[in-house]
């Protein structure tokens, strides 16, 4: 047998992609301590924390308006399932954490959706989970956004709505073209 045939099956690794944005990142360099564009392994039993305290947090944000520990993540396997997930917990007493439309107060936690936007203060983080099989560790892959994540997502998901609140899609479904009407006509 060749060494290729004897080699163990390679497991895929769950990867959490996180894209960071702050409007002042160019001036204040609050992301200078983050390792962008390189995957980083994290042990499954570790709870990585994000915040400004470099003694406690694995991912440091260099901003005095960020809490010492802003939030933490926990990697886990769902009960009676092979699916791995992340749980996010707000560790800030002063700042609410918003995950998509869910607002988390201090010590509140929820499962991280497979794709979501995490917001606190002026920070926006797009989180995307790439599924894997390994239970020993996961990876993080950090990215830096040039434009606001919320703005970019809104532009992709919404069409402009005219002042009369009738969208162009409702006209196309009727097969008619829009007609200009004087606002005094009924």
UniProtKB/TrEMBL annotation:
<keyword id="KW-0391">Immunity</keyword>
<dbReference type="Pfam" id="PF00498">
    <property type="entry name" value="FHA"/>
</dbReference>
<keyword id="KW-0963">Cytoplasm</keyword>
<dbReference type="GO" id="GO:0005737">
    <property type="term" value="C:cytoplasm"/>
</dbReference>
<feature type="domain" description="FHA">
    <location>
        <begin position="50"/>
        <end position="121"/>
    </location>
</feature>
<dbReference type="InterPro" id="IPR033621">
    <property type="entry name" value="TIFA"/>
</dbReference>
<comment type="similarity">
    <text>Belongs to the TIFA family.</text>
</comment>
<keyword id="KW-0399">Innate immunity</keyword>
<dbReference type="GO" id="GO:0045087">
    <property type="term" value="P:innate immune response"/>
</dbReference>
<dbReference type="InterPro" id="IPR008984">
    <property type="entry name" value="SMAD_FHA_dom_sf"/>
</dbReference>
<dbReference type="GO" id="GO:0043123">
    <property type="term" value="P:positive regulation of canonical NF-kappaB signal transduction"/>
</dbReference>
<dbReference type="InterPro" id="IPR000253">
    <property type="entry name" value="FHA_dom"/>
</dbReference>
<protein>
    <recommendedName>
        <fullName>TRAF-interacting protein with FHA domain-containing protein A</fullName>
    </recommendedName>
</protein>
<feature type="region of interest" description="Disordered">
    <location>
        <begin position="162"/>
        <end position="186"/>
    </location>
</feature>
């Amino acid at each position: 047998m060749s060494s290729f045939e004897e080699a163990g099956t390679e497991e895929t690794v769950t990867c959490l992609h996180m894209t960071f944005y702050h409007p002042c990142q160019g001036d204040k360099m609050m992301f200078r301590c983050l390792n962008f564009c390189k995957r980083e392994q994290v042990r499954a039993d570790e709870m990585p924390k994000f915040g400004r305290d470099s003694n406690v947090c694995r991912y440091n944000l260099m901003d005095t308006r960020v809490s010492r520990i802003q939030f933490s993540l926990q990697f886990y396997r769902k009960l009676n399932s092979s699916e791995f997930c992340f749980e996010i917990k707000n560790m800030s007493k002063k700042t609410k954490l918003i995950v998509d439309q869910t607002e988390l107060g201090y010590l509140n936690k929820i499962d991280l959706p497979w794709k979501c936007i995490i917001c606190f203060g002026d920070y926006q983080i797009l989180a995307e989970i790439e599924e894997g099989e390994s239970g020993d560790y996961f990876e993080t892959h950090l990215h830096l956004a040039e434009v606001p994540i919320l703005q970019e997502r809104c532009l992709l998901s919404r069409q402009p709505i005219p002042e009369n609140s009738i969208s162009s899609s409702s006209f196309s479904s009727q097969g008619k073209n829009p007609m200009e009407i004087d606002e005094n006509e009924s």
